UniProtKB/TrEMBL annotation:
It comes from Subdoligranulum variabile DSM 15176. Keywords: Cell membrane, Membrane, Transmembrane, Transmembrane helix, Transport. It is found in: Cell membrane. Coiled coil: none annotated. PROSITE patterns: ABC_TM1. The keyword Cell membrane applies. This is ABC transporter, permease protein.
């Protein structure tokens, strides 16, 4: 007994030693900056030229000042840009995942298609933005093609309109991430027992009914994960609109996101306002993720309660 206890303790000790570097790195590079960010959000702390103002404790004034600023409008911009990219992403990903995992279709070259749709995810967002900036500029190849085939007489200023700029940003986010989403959903669908699909087919269940009644409910945890990570990524949207609009959020700041707004405070070295905005983003992320989790898991808990209630009534 003593030998077994000693071996157990020695294994536990080595386990703690192996995970210690992670906790040290997390403490130094994540936890301390996070605590400092929250602390500075209650202070007036910025630089004016070479003069440093603060840090002076001012309570919730930074939070109140942000609510009076254009932050709410930039939050709306972020939501719109996220929806433009995410809605077609999840629809196309679900469609492709269902096709590629359907044994009855007998699609050839599945591995090739998986690689092709995942390739855009390997390209850096900055390179993607520069590519689209060159393609859709007034002197770019897209305008040259449209003019050569006679669809337009003058170059179209894609990035000169709100609709054009937002559409390009949404298109880039869609192209970069739909492949990754498709692979995850394919893995989720392949985890469903084939016996369930065979039983549904024997009962005369059609493709649409099988998808909405069997596939979607059974991959709901992966859908929740996809939606939560997409929301967090949407709130952190920065590099694509930053490069495409040269950091200005043009036209008329309709493509300015919350992280671009945060970056402008950091560039002006207004650390108090930047800290308060970071706390706002953290709170919004937490609330949205909580609602998504409740929406995607609430019906399961309801069904369990109903089963327990029926079992109690029978007893």
């Amino acid at each position: 007994m003593n030998k077994k206890k000693q071996n157990h303790l020695s294994y536990a000790k080595w386990g703690y030693i192996f995970i210690l570097p992670f906790f040290l790195a997390f403490f130094i590079f994540s936890l301390i900056p996070l605590v400092d960010t929250v602390r500075y959000s209650f202070y007036e702390y910025y630089r004016s030229g070479i003069k440093e103002i603060g840090p002076t404790f001012i309570g919730l004034e930074n939070y109140a000042e942000l609510l009076k600023s254009d932050m709410v409008g930039y939050a709306g911009n972020t939501l719109i840009l996220w929806l433009i990219g995410f809605v077609p992403q999840i629809v196309i990903a679900l469609l492709l995942a269902n096709w590629f995992t359907d044994v009855r279709l007998k699609i050839r070259g599945k591995q090739f298609f998986k690689i092709i749709i995942y390739l855009p995810n390997l390209i850096m967002a900055s390179a993607f933005a520069m590519l689209f900036f060159a393609l859709f500029s007034t002197n770019g190849p897209i305008n040259s093609i449209l003019m050569s085939i006679g669809l337009t007489d003058t170059p179209i200023d894609f990035m000169g309109t709100t609709f054009g700029t937002r559409s390009l940003i949404g298109l880039m986010n869609f192209l970069m991430w739909f492949g990754n989403t498709t692979i995850m959903l394919m893995a989720a669908i392949m985890g469903i027992s084939p016996d369930i699909f065979e039983a549904a087919e024997l009962d005369g269940c059609g493709s649409f009914r099988r998808f909405f009644s069997i596939t979607l409910p059974l991959i709901r945890p992966i859908l929740a994960y996809t939606l939560i990570t997409s929301i967090i990524g949407g709130l952190q949207m920065f590099d694509v609109p930053q490069i495409l609009t040269n950091g200005q959020g043009n036209p008329d700041r309709t493509s300015m996101t919350l992280i671009m707004f945060l970056n402008s405070h950091l560039k002006s070295r207004n650390y108090g306002m930047a800290g308060a905005l970071s706390v706002y983003l953290f709170i919004v992320s937490g609330i949205l993720c909580f609602f998504v989790y409740r929406m995607t898991n609430g019906s399961d808990s309801t069904a369990k309660h109903r089963k327990h209630a029926k079992g109690g009534a029978k007893a």
